[in-house]
User: Which sequence fits this backbone?
């Protein structure tokens, strides 16, 4: 991508290289025994860029820190009413890489998306959230009809950053509800970087099918009082630490979670995106995760 | 009365054309072009050795340092550096000189920009007096006041994996607490065992102005006190003008902590979040509104709000630069507190773009000066 940005290779050459890389990423996941793949989303500069580069009414703005990381995104600027005209994400994904696989896509949750924008148009924040939800719903519907997309992971660190008021919670719910009207896969609401307990208990009733928590930032003992009636996605692999968790440690963490929260099912994975790690570390972590998964299943 | 709106650069510049891995006629021609334009003394000698191919790499770095200095001097800046020509980048360069740092590979920062991230696998210890030789060399050739940029302890720690320190706290069961303790220990080790000796050596060698780069400063709001503590440990008792540079951050988080810091100047990025339109109202100058907080807290140090965006090829006009400076002076309530500066280092811009930007910076500051003095 750097070569392309400097004009040293053509767009076609970039796409070809990125597609090859996505295939490799898929192969590593298969080798590790992941039951649900990700495509890699390598053509996305940040979580919002496909939208801010394409959707009418939105444009990429200044470089802004992505939570507490040495990573930055271009803050979307809302300059007009958001208008969806044509499919967006399909042009940013290599669907052939995951065509015959069960896979999940990672998209920003609408309330989080709206919170990370510089809104210069909408008087009502709620309207902005719902317009974003509408766009995400359309996109998910198109992708699902073109692949075996099983889960849409909605990234929502904002929801667990601090306690939210009831009005905000209601807006989050409406956004998820709107997406579910046109997307019949499962919605995973993932609250990484932050303590999940900040979003409890309301998040249990948010409409999400799977609740995602970052166990590198969450004290599960504080969640013991809640009744988890739906599956949990547990981020047990620290995506921001080079320490490669031993398999036993991963198994123990998952078992402790099952024991304390007693959810009907758990999914296990990294706490957040793996691009915070050098590739060799990320690969090792994915491999250990696969082994830990098989151990958990066998017991 | 001291000169209003003095001009400074922030640090880096794209490496000189002759530092590329392969040198063809194109690089030689560019070397000649810039040598002539920047009035680099005896640049013809460099062109000649490039043509013969008989040179050693260190020799080229020395030439690059001179080109970098002349780049800023000829553009007319008051305070200059050599564009960090010898440095691979602001993080990897110092860490290559620290025992205990092991590089694991590239990680993304934004878009296509990455850095080579290291783990600190043993107690960090300074192997070489980082920055000293480049300072001594620059001192010989600079004709303007020098400001040497140095990466600060908090950023070096925040951008690294604290493996050694994490292992030291293996008995701490709570993972969040273990991480917190590891980070704290690493930050303070970087301050006391790495940065403090470096700064002391630079000061002893005659460095009068030192810029400590801490782009990670506000990353973790709960660690602001730690950031301040580490910074003060580095600079306390050292006789120099200290500039703190922070960029692409939420500057609200600096307050009130920054008031306890032993700094003379604070350089921040503002043009990145501003509009390109001329004018001195809140809407057009939205990137500078943060300065209102500075005034509310009655800051005593000088402020260098970036008036040049280093991530676009858009060339700010002198009028725009002037508007940004005058508006900053208005918000701070005192023009003598304002320094004209770039948002950050210019490493991502081509030289022709960077040079035009620096010419605009100088001309815009001059324009602002004359407008303010007529008021």
Assistant:
């Amino acid at each position: 991508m750097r070569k392309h940005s400097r004009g040293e290779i053509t767009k076609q050459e970039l796409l070809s290289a990125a597609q090859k890389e996505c295939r490799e990423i898929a192969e590593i996941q298969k080798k590790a025994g992941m039951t649900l793949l990700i495509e890699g989303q390598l053509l996305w500069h940040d979580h919002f860029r496909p939208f801010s580069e394409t959707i009418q009414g939105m444009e990429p703005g200044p470089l802004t820190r992505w939570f507490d990381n040495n990573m930055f995104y271009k803050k979307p600027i809302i300059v007009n009413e958001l208008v969806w005209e044509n499919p967006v994400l399909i042009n940013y994904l290599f669907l052939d890489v995951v065509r015959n696989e069960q896979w999940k896509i990672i998209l920003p949750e609408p309330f989080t998306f709206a919170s990370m924008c510089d809104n210069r148009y909408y008087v009502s924040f709620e309207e902005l959230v719902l317009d974003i939800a509408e766009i995400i719903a359309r996109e998910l519907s198109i992708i699902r009809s073109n692949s075996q997309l099983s889960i849409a992971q909605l990234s929502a660190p904002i929801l667990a950053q601090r306690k939210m008021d009831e009005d905000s919670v209601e807006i989050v719910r409406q956004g998820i509800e709107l997406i579910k009207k046109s997307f019949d896969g499962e919605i995973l609401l993932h609250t990484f970087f932050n303590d999940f307990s900040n979003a409890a208990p309301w998040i249990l009733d948010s409409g999400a099918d799977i609740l995602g928590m970052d166990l590198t930032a969450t004290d599960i003992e504080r969640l013991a009082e809640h009744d988890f009636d739906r599956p949990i996605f547990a981020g047990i692999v620290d995506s921001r630490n080079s320490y490669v968790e031993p398999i036993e440690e991963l198994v123990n963490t998952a078992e402790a979670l099952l024991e304390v929260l007693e959810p009907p099912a758990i999914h296990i994975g990294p706490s957040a995106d793996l691009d915070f790690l050098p590739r060799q570390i990320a690969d090792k972590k994915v491999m250990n995760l696969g082994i830990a998964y098989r151990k958990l299943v066998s017991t | 009365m001291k000169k209003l709106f003095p001009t400074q650069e922030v640090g880096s510049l794209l490496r000189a054309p002759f530092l590329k891995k392969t040198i063809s006629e194109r690089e030689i021609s560019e070397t000649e072009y810039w040598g002539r334009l920047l009035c680099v003394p005896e640049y013809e000698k460099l062109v000649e050795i490039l043509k013969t191919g008989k040179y050693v790499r260190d020799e080229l770095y020395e030439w690059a340092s001179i080109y970098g200095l002349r780049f800023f001097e000829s553009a007319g800046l008051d305070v200059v550096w050599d564009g960090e020509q010898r440095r691979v980048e602001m993080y990897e360069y110092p860490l290559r000189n620290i025992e205990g740092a092991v590089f694991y590979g590239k990680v993304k920062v934004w878009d296509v920009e990455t850095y080579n991230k290291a783990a600190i696998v043993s107690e960090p210890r300074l192997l070489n007096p980082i920055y000293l030789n480049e300072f001594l060399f620059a001192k010989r050739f600079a004709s303007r006041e020098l400001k040497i940029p140095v990466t600060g302890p908090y950023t070096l720690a925040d951008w690294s994996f604290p493996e050694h320190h994490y292992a030291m706290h293996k008995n701490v069961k709570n993972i969040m607490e273990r991480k917190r303790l590891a980070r704290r220990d690493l930050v303070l080790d970087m301050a006391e065992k790495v940065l403090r000796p470096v700064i002391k050596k630079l000061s002893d060698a005659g460095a009068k102005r030192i810029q400590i780069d801490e782009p990670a400063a506000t990353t973790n709001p709960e660690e602001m006190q730690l950031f301040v503590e580490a910074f003060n440990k580095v600079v306390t008792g050292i006789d120099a003008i200290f500039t703190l540079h922070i960029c692409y951050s939420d500057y609200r988080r600096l307050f009130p902590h920054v008031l306890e810091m032993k700094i003379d100047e604070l350089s921040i990025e503002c043009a990145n979040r501003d509009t390109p339109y001329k004018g001195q109202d809140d809407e057009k100058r939205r990137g500078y509104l943060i300065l209102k907080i500075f005034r509310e807290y009655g800051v005593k140090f000088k402020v260098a709000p970036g008036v040049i965006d280093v991530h676009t090829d858009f060339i700010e006009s002198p009028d725009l630069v002037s508007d940004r400076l005058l508006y900053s002076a208005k918000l701070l309530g005192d023009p003598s507190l304002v320094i004209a500066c770039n948002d950050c280092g210019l490493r991502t811009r081509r030289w022709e773009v960077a040079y035009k930007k620096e010419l605009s910076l100088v001309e815009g500051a001059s324009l602002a000066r004359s407008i303010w003095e007529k008021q």
